Amino acid sequence: MALVPCQVLRVAILLSYCSILCNYKAIEMPSHQTYGGSWKFLTFIDLVIQAVFFGICVLTDLSSLLTRGSGNQEQERQLRKLISLRDWMLAVLAFPVGVFVVAVFWIIYAYDREMIYPKLLDNFIPGWLNHGMHTTVLPFILIEMRTSHHAYPSRSSGLAAICTFSVGYILWQRTTFLKKTADPFNRRPRRLLRSGKHGRIFDERES
Fold it and tell me: What are phi and psi of 68, to 5 degrees?
């Protein structure tokens, strides 16, 4: 028997993601005021994906508890759909995107942190929040995979979904870039920021 039930772990993880998201959104950074806001960063998108996924996990646990022993076929059918959605999201979004964000961030950080997380960001983002965004994602998702059984989709459908997400993210990045360069009010400030002492903080991606 597990020391801590997986249902309790899921609630705790969900609350931690809600806390991370709230604290991150409360930070006033220039990059949050430009087109796309926080949604430009894969780190933030990943946090939303993880929060939604664990929210579905908690909802599945509650539904399972309420339908246990009821004998209602319709409720059981809805529960199976919810479980399928949970397993699909884990396989095609939560796990691959989470692992990608953690691995790429820390590999580049170890090579040259200024490329991905300039020291100036330490003035805005505390260390615990940085680890909440770029470190704990991986152990949280591994705990979920270790403590619960999941039925994964076929390889072809999973790859198709991941590729669709990747292409969509690339197109979204292209859109934000075009919007930024097309805005005449952004052109001169962007040149000044790049040439200034603290310019990299406005153009660097967090992940």
Answer: -65, 125
